[in-house]
Amino acid sequence: MSLRQAQIESDFLSAIQESKKATKPYDTVATVKRVEGDTAWVHIPGGVDETPVARSISAQAGDMVRIRVSGGSAWITGNDSAPPTDDATALIAKGDAQTANQNAGAAKQSAKQAGVKAAAAQKTAGAASTAAAAAGNLASAAKESAASAQSTAERTDVKLDTLIRKTDEGIEAGKVPDASTLSNGDSITVPAALVNTNGSFDVLLVTYTNSGGVVTKTDSARIATFGSDAVIGKSTDTHAHIDSDSFDIVDADGYLKASLGGSTPMIQIGKFTFVNRENGNLTLRLNEEG
Fold first, then answer.
1. pTM confidence score
2. Exposure pattern of 16-30 as b/e (b: 16+ CB <10 Å)?
3. For 169-191, what is the mean pLDDT?
4. 129 and 270 inside one domain
């Protein structure tokens, strides 16, 4: 070998060594395109061709992996896929997560349905509150009527004797005016209670009249009845009627003005009926004219 040839070879080897020194190790990420044995072919962002790297950890096509490049070689240092496609434990965890997500979706749907039913129940409760308030007003009116009758009796200075007596309807308890203090031809109305022969209980407004020195009962109006059914208010006026499964407001002509309950849970207010279906839906129906 001539001296010149030896110098050329030495320069070439030096150039190769300098080239290796110029490339410093670095880390990057890449997508696995295919796998052949222990070699994975990856695509590094910015690159054109696929690059072979040592498959030092589990990786399959489609995985996003971390790559270490050093000294002209490259190998996989980590798998950022969630989870790595051939990691059995991670796949089980992923399946559990999917199942939990499905269960969460079902729970969300159940909560939504429960919200619909709760809203329907809230509407029903609101209407029931309105009906209860109406019944309360009727009860207050009945109480005021009884108090007014008692007050009238006291203002007229009529002597009243409290008696418990048997009548054709049952046992009646209340005050009866004395003939000596009730002028001939005058009348007075007082409250009374009646226990009927069928076991029900009535609150009455009883009118007594002095006719020729004899005091007799000339009128009796029920303002409340309690038994298998309950009625609050005079049946000749708007009143509340409560039976085993419903609460109704009835006018003086016997027409149903409002209702809550019945064989199908519902609320009827005037011309409108709200029906609470078993599926939680609330249906509004326009009643026909009675």
1. 0.38
2. eeeeeeeeeeeebeb
3. 84
4. yes
